[in-house]
Amino acid sequence: MQEPVFSYVPGASVIHRLDPRTKVTTVMLLGILTFRVDNFAGIVALFAFFFVLALLSGLPIKIFLRAVRPMMLFIFFIFLTQMFFTDGRPFASYWILQPSLEGLEKGLKLAARFIFLLLFAALLTASTDPSAITCGVERMVRPLPLRWLGISSFELATMMNISIAFFPLLFERVERTKAAQTARGMDFVKNPFRSIPALAVPLLRGVIRDAEELALAMEGRGYQGNQRTSIHELSMQKNDWEAFFILVLFILFILIL
């Protein structure tokens, strides 16, 4: 059976061995940098940097393609919206629609940014165990005064752990629901407007049912949200500091392009 989207792939690469705090911080900074890049030279540099990271991780390319594929329709819609509704010099005419060169450039940049976010997120989740991500995030937010908001870093980490665990299962449930509706005679190509409620309604009911079952299971096991020990003892190693140094150099290189 095919692994769900954004699932963890065990390995022993240099990316797998990095501290989860290093990888989470790197993905956050690269995500911010993605939206700061405003030229195609920076986009090409970002793609080259991701390609190097993917090679170092030893992960198959199909993992990243599976991460992007579910969002391609949305990304294509964003691209068309920018191309047809951005003012500028038109390069063609389709009835009342006149795509502009400025819109084409803006649409390509925006589509590339969304794709980069998905690729870096896939790299993080595929190279890091979900429990390690949770532990790393909990250590990062522990100094924050979250008690003023009525929560603790451990509760926040638990919510993140549940979200990470449910995210690939959500895509798996979408595929199962789609297959079930197709077996009942639903054609998602010929009936796009009827297929949306046919897919969304059972999907929403299933997600709510899973959330209720999880809440009951946690209550039955006496979950209180208190501080708990972890099997992951995090410590920054030489490779982590080297990774941060390379990341800072790359960010400076992108900003001066």
From TrEMBL:
Q: Which domain of life is it from?
A: Archaea
Question: Where's it found, cell-wise?
Answer: Membrane
Keyword set, alphabetical order:
Membrane, Transmembrane, Transmembrane helix
State the GO CC annotations. Answer: plasma membrane
InterPro entries per UniProt: ABC/ECF_trnsptr_transmembrane
For this protein, the parts annotated as crossing the membrane are: 40-61, 67-86, 107-128, 148-171, 240-256
Q: What is the official name of this protein in its record?
A: Transmembrane component BioN of energizing module of biotin ECF transporter
